[in-house]
Amino acid sequence: MSDKDSELNMDNISHVDTDSEEFDCDNRRIPLEHLPMFQRLASVNGKINRMKRRQLINIMNNKKLNTDGEIDVLRKRLKNHYRMQALIKAKICESEATYFPYFVVIDIEATCTENNPSDYKFEIIEFPAVLVDAKKRKIIDHFQAYVKPTINPKLSEFCIKLTGITQDQIDNADSFELCLKRFTKWLEEHELGTKHRFSIVTDGPFDMARFLYGQCLMSEIPYPKFATKWINIRKVFRSFYFTKQVKHSVLCNLNAMLTFLDMQFEGNPHSGLDDSFNIARICIRLLEDGAFIDQNERIISLKTPSPYGKDDPLPVRPVHNIFCDGMHSHSNNRCLAAFANASKETLVLLNNLVIKETHSILFNTLKERGYHLTFKSADDPTLVLSKYGKYFYENLIIFAPTVQEFGGSLSIETITQFIDDGGNVLFTGGVSTGSALRELAAECGFEVTEENSSLIDHLNFDASDSGKHTLVVTSSSNLIKSEEIVGKSNEKPLLYEGTTVITDPKNPLVLPILHAESTAYSYKPDLPVKDYSLGTGKDLLLIAALQARNNARVVFSGSLYFFSDVAFRTSVQKVDGKTYNISGNQEVASNIVLWTLKDRGMIRVKSVNHHKVGESSPPPSYTIMDMAVFLIELERWENGKWIPHDANDVQVEFVRIDPFWRGNLNNMKNGKYEFTFKIPDTYGVYQFKVEYNRIGFTAIRSSTMVSVIPLEHTQYERFILSAYPYYSSAFSMMFGVFIFSFVFLHYREDKAKGE
């Protein structure tokens, strides 16, 4: 290819041939009508792949593109240039864009010694940050603070020489808590987390998952919410410039990335601020070359004195769908919000503060179990759930049936996002359920019956009813059959006064906690019944729940009265004359609330193991037809501690694309389960999968990947029984040839006889 021919003609690249559906491309929905354009792009990419470095540089100089970097970098940069020009010309996109308009690059320096022992506690001594404008592709500001360590206040000579930080700088520095406050204020000054989206960028997982996480534990301060997800620039770099040189992260350190891009390190190595500046330069180069930079790592557990036990020493996992944290090996569905929930911070929204007194028994029960309740009016103008990406509460209780609009920054969108991020919500309606709660219910899969309608039952009402038969007595047999949600069954009836909801029975995430009697119906009590009822019988739900795929829990009750002190303490006298000293409301309501707040029905995977029969540790790979053992240990949260989970319905699958094995795990007691089986005679990459979904419990999804290899040549059988006829045929043939040869060579005719 000559230099003249190397200039690519893209004039007709956006030609349109057809009209059709859409397809996915680079996180955009692209009309299929533009498919011929992408076919042309594929042809152009092929030509670029065949170009030499000199040809690439000539074209890139003409187009005023950066020519630094190895040949793979140049090819990637030129391909992306043509791709974006084609997309813009076809009016598929206006310009290159990234989800985060700002990046905050952080490279933390910590105390160290020449040979750090395994139990060494790293303390932050330098906290730098560099702010990058992703749209303008330039560095616009930086932050730097030195931190005074407390456990190792004197720096080692090795640390001083490595980082360039002196003892005097550390002795005169602020504590980590003050440093973090200064950094948060710096974010506020740039309106990051409020007006502008941003993401933390690091070189590897350790800055957030080990240094910042560990420092927050030692300083006994909450881990900052804005740092629960971040961008590991090494992963982005390795994925975008996928070549043999950057195939493994160990080869993809800061110096290696700069060298690959033909860039020189600026400043002093291991200086936190200088390292951050150089990482920012790499980030900018990635943006210029067309990389889509998105969050790819996150904290999955926040260690607190809580029911969630000890966490991993490096609690970090790749980012996946918020609804399921089970994509990595040995996942036990420990969502971030579930771990944060251990602090038990709960916001309670009320119609008025009188409800705090009329429902004091329930609130006191929660306080006794360690919940910190913050009471506010539902229309309080100062209401806020989060700030700078950090939630102030893990649970939300709304006892404000008539609210039409929430105050402050609280809205239906923020509440649904709160649920998507793992928060738990309990809210109650009433005869006059406000539009805000109706909309929230609809978002969660509940349809509240018409305004001013009540549950009416002419055959099951309390003697103290006003005559409209709306104070309904319902049997505890109408509760969902789950001790984790409603507690152990009892004969005490339940008092209910309020509205009802209807749900889609095909929705697998919705749970009917309490349904109406078959004789009940929903209608406006002040009007004569002239039309068909809005709902009848057991189709009407009094209390419904939603457990999302991320194990967030939402409960809606059509009655605020159900949770009141009056309902808890009053006696029950049914219309048929049966009397009960007290209703069953208190026990049932308390259990439902505790279940909603994840104080009941929590289950986790403690450990997962697998090995060959006769061994004890996982092998690098299995061979076809091996005998394998799979073991898993489950625990559940009960009465303030983790105890072994005892069940006989836990199954495991051995899956390649489809399951090759599916079987019940043998309950070995003490929460341990075992399954022994024979590896299939088909080699490939398999997964041990355990998916455990039971009503009342959080869902478990554990996936462990293993490889299965074929037999080695020395492992095949030398003689097969079914092949014996062939063996005998071959040997008999050789024997026959031997006899024939012997006779042929040694047989001589008698000469006399011949004459």
TrEMBL record:
Swiss-Prot/TrEMBL keywords: Endoplasmic reticulum, Membrane, Transmembrane, Transmembrane helix
Transmembrane segments: 724-745
SMART domains on file: EXOIII
UniProt subcellular location: Endoplasmic reticulum membrane
Pathway: Protein modification; protein glycosylation
Alphabetical GO biological process terms: protein N-linked glycosylation via asparagine
GO cellular component entries: oligosaccharyltransferase complex
GO MF: 3'-5'-RNA exonuclease activity; nucleic acid binding
Chief location: endoplasmic reticulum
A matching Pfam family: RNase_T
Domain Exonuclease per the UniProt entry, residue ranges: 102-292
PANTHER family reported for this sequence: DOLICHYL-DIPHOSPHOOLIGOSACCHARIDE--PROTEIN GLYCOSYLTRANSFERASE 48 KDA SUBUNIT
Family named by the database record: Belongs to the DDOST 48 kDa subunit family.
Protein purpose: Subunit of the oligosaccharyl transferase (OST) complex that catalyzes the initial transfer of a defined glycan (Glc(3)Man(9)GlcNAc(2) in eukaryotes) from the lipid carrier dolichol-pyrophosphate to an asparagine residue within an Asn-X-Ser/Thr consensus motif in nascent polypeptide chains, the first step in protein N-glycosylation. N-glycosylation occurs cotranslationally and the complex associates with the Sec61 complex at the channel-forming translocon complex that mediates protein translocation across the endoplasmic reticulum (ER).
Subunit structure, interactors included: Component of the oligosaccharyltransferase (OST) complex.
Protein name: Dolichyl-diphosphooligosaccharide--protein glycosyltransferase 48 kDa subunit
